[in-house]
Amino acid sequence: MKHLPIFNKEYRKLLKDFGVYLERMGYNKNTQSMLPSCLQEFFYRMEQQGINTLDQLTPGLIRKHYEYLTERPNRTRPGGLSDSMINHHMYALKTFINYQQESGNMHTNPFSVLNFPKVKCPPRQVLTIEEIKALYNACENMKDRAMLGLFYGCGLRRSEAMKLNIIDINFKSQLLYVRSGKGRKRRVVPLTDQVKTDLQNYYLYERGLQVREITKDNQNAFILNRHGNRMVEYWKRLKYLVKQAELPEQISLHHLRHSIATHLLESGLSIEQVRDFLGHRYLESTQIYTRISKQYLASQTV
């Protein structure tokens, strides 16, 4: 697609500006390359039809481009474009038009009246606030509440909770430090008053009492199992709490992370703030939760 010539100076500038926009918004390198490439093919076809300005863009032209993509041969292998690749093309065009509208260069959005088949992905389950409360009500000790505080209240990944040390939590400042997240990314997670209280209660009043003997190699670990080792069996305990709360048995630790992300978006946090909270490197990793939050909100209003 990058080999297709674009002679229109306005289109060339728009392609360049779009690439800068994607970089500035934090999209990953592959996306920064792929989306302008998809847009370039669209501009190429616009030129071929004598359409040289965005003012001439209509829903009909976008639909015709979609129909063209469904019939276009794949240039790298036999057959046509995959549903996923067609989806990339339409996502590129939609993202570009949204960007132009936000910049004030387009006053109407021709995409707003169109619907195209989407690649189906397995749905991510989100717990309701009531289900989260049920899990907390099922807790039998301070460690249970501390565990929920890490995975729901702080949105930690399992590996991040396993690596968590005492020194990584500053109770006075109400901050939790993830020293080495996914991709070795560091971040700081703010603690709500309740999460701080739950973590502090476990540390002060239960951590040393629930274990037989704290092993020398794990003295720095924040949460310990009953043998005095660094806690790694979080999923087993969650399964127990899920059963006690009479919730769907497929709920996992990562469902708690999905849930807090969705609930934060519903509470009004921006997608950039949620990205930083979760420790995502790229914005599109967080964008899935904007769709989940809409589905969640709809389910709560039925």
UniProtKB/TrEMBL annotation:
Keyword annotations of the record: DNA integration, DNA recombination, DNA-binding
Top-level taxon in the UniProt lineage:
Bacteria
- Stretches assigned to the Tyr recombinase domain: 122-302
The GO biological-process annotations, alphabetized, read as: DNA integration; DNA recombination
| PANTHER family noted in UniProt | INTEGRASE_RECOMBINASE PROTEIN MJ0367-RELATED (PTHR30349:SF41), PHAGE INTEGRASE-RELATED (PTHR30349)
Q: Which family does it belong to?
A: Belongs to the 'phage' integrase family.
The name of this protein is Phage integrase family protein
Q: Which organism is it from?
A: Fulvivirga imtechensis AK7
